[in-house]
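User: For a teaching handout, I'd like to show students what a predicted protein-ligand complex looks like in token form. I'll give you the sequence and the SMILES for S-adenosylmethionine. Please answer with just the structure.
Assistant: Understood, here is the input followed by the structure.
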Amino acid sequence: MTYKKKLIEVALPLEAINKEAARENYIYKGKPPPVYDPFCGGGSIPLEAQRMGLEAHASDLNPVPVLINKALIEIPPKFASKPPVNPEAKKKLGASGSWKGAAGLAEDIRYYGQWMRDEAEKRIGHLYPKVKLPKEHGGGEARVIAWLWARTVASPNPAAKGGTSMSVRTALSLINQSLDEVLAEQEGEFDADTRWALAWFDQNGFNEGAYGMAETLCTAKNTSVQGVKDAGILEAKGGKVRLLKKEELDADWNPATDSRLTIWEITHHLIRRLEQGESGAAELIQQLGAKTEVARDLSYRLYTICERRKWAQEAIDYNALVLSWSDVQRLAQEKKAAAPTQGEMQL
Ligand SMILES: C[S@@+](CC[C@H](N)C(=O)[O-])C[C@H]1O[C@@H](n2cnc3c(N)ncnc32)[C@H](O)[C@@H]1O
């Protein structure tokens, strides 16, 4: 029986490869040449070359392969046999110790990967609340580890049984309806003036609106136009009213002497201070205590309104407070620890 050569053996005959390898070895005087794969893709060629002890180079026009190759062949050798640098490993083992290959680097990646996960949870974890599990899945509450964006959903209407899908638009409107219910519940935390300001903002933003409309809304929210004005967040003149922008709020505002303190004011003063740096905002949190958490909730609520209404600048302001919340709060705690005798204001 005659042996039929495979295509690869015809295209790259082993004898030819061996001959070429011997020639290369002779030219490079036993020192193997560097390898360069200009279209490296997933990096198998540079990785194998490196594994054989060759100097490996790689490039690609696609940034994903570039990233893969950086992680695969460029970064690990730089840290080969080095100890980890994360504080916990250092504490445990001292700065040295024996770390073979990429073990030290892997230890750091695990440590800082966990740090990033915890940090993400601290900063945006509140946007991903626990869900109630149905009985058939054990009941109770569970943390969601991945959210999938479903473009169509099966209709809960029994008349539409049989896999009828509803449009994304209908699904979104149902989602928003549920969201509104949740948010309405959250509104219970706000004072009456803030509840009024929130509803007014949803309709008018910082634009002027008719006094009569403001008055009707005030009745519904159990406050008065004069009261909201006294709270220092509203301008009323010539039959028109408008909410004051954060930069128009009283620059000398002191929550300790404010006789009609509102979550609305606290939120906007926090954002204003944040523009000057985290320290000022942290001082306010330190002064007002844990109840400023409600200001964070309001800021998030205002952010969702701005996003829905496509008010980009305001959305950025509110989002900034939400995003920097954990940092500012940490700073406030540090300040509090440095001045332990200072008490918190009771709202
Ligand atoms: C088949 S993959 C490479 C596989 C890789 N050499 C291996 O052996 O595993 C081809 C790669 O070439 C890259 N590529 C295509 N055109 C390119 C160009 N003009 N410059 C750089 N990379 C290119 C593609 O992005 C793709 O990642």
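For the handout, you might add this sentence: The CA atoms of residues 132 and 141 lie 5 Å apart.
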